[in-house]
Amino acid sequence: MDRVERSLTDRDGWEPTLYDTKLGFNTGFGQDLVELLAPRPGETILDLGCGTGDLAHRIAARGATVIGIDRSPTMLGRAREKYPSIEFVQADGQNFAFPPATFDAVFSNAALHWMKDAAGVVACVWNVLKPGGRFVAEFGGKGNIQAVVEAITAVLGAAGYPVDGRNPWYYPTIGEYATLLERQGFRVTRALHFDRPTRLDDGERGLENWLTMFAGTFFEGIPDSQRAALYASIASRLRPLLFHDGTWVIDYVRLRVVAVRER
Ligand code: BEZ
After folding, report:
1. 209 lines ligand 1 (CB under 6 A)
2. Which value, in Å, is the radius of gyration of the alpha carbons in the chain?
3. Which atom from ligand 1 is nearest to the alpha carbon of 144?
4. Which residues lie below 8 Å from residue 151, measured CB to CB, with a gap of 6+?
5. Tell me: the pLDDT tens digits for 200-251?
6. What is the rounded CA–CA span in Å between residue 67 and residue 97?
7. How far is the CA of 118 from the centre of ligand 1 (A)?
8. Is residue 29 in contact with ligand 1, taking CB distance under 6 Å?
């Protein structure tokens, strides 16, 4: 069995090895977003929620100076190991600061759905952008992983572990998110809400990897000895919907936005 071992440096719930080896799909999909960002040599660009740094590296390869921020020290540790020439800083995307007008662009892939204080994120992004600067982001939109959340909720509820208050994610509609951006003063030049069914690596084991990596808050305080059975019940509920030809295909729905700080 090629089970990925828990990283010894895992202190904050994120597992960089599991992320990079089995759950790298966000980096793959994010390359498209880098094209939309269209980084230019000489620009200074913030990667908000940079994880293990692969997209920061792609942006830097286009000649821009990149700073990556992330809340997870373990993910940042891996980013620094992989890309020592890029600056990575630990910061909360809902409450961070750089000197005003530091960046030509702020980029964010697959991170903003972890930040429930979306107005805080938008205000910080505004403050660090230069006039004329752009914000290019993609994250989970309304309806993202709805079947997965419903299965977790049903299984944990039936086992006596109600999920109240444990859902860590924020999945807005275009209307909700564009309103936040416009209230801040941004001009929203693009917004797209689309289905993106996402194939997981590792066959049968793919869903367990996904739950281990991303859904930890639902299982906090539940003894490890019970987790395998709970994961198995979640998998059997989801199998008819999301398991096809030996592969888990998760019901991702994305929101992609481009907004400009004009003044
Ligand atoms: C996402 O990329 O949509 C996502 C990733 C992990 C947990 C929830 C959503």
Report:
1. no
2. 19
3. 3
4. 234, 237, 238
5. 999 999 999 999 999 999 999 999 899 999 999 999 999 999 999 999 999 9
6. 12
7. 16
8. no
Q: Which two tokens stand for residue 28?
A: 């793959």
Q: What is the pLDDT of residues 124-141, one digit of tens each?
A: 999 999 999 999 999 999
Say whether 193 sits in a helix, a strand or coil. strand
Residue ranges per domain, the chain? 3-261
CATH architecture of the domain with range 3-261: 3-Layer(aba) Sandwich (3.40)
Distance, CA 138 to ligand 1 centroid (Å)?
11
Asked whether the CA dihedral 190, 27, 250, 222 is positive or negative, the reply is negative
Q: Is 231 in the pocket of ligand 1 (CB under 6 A)?
A: no
The alpha-helical segments, DSSP class H, found in 94-145 are: 118-128
Both tokens assigned to 101 = 């007008």
pTM for the structure as a whole: 0.93
224, containing H or E segment: helix 224-242
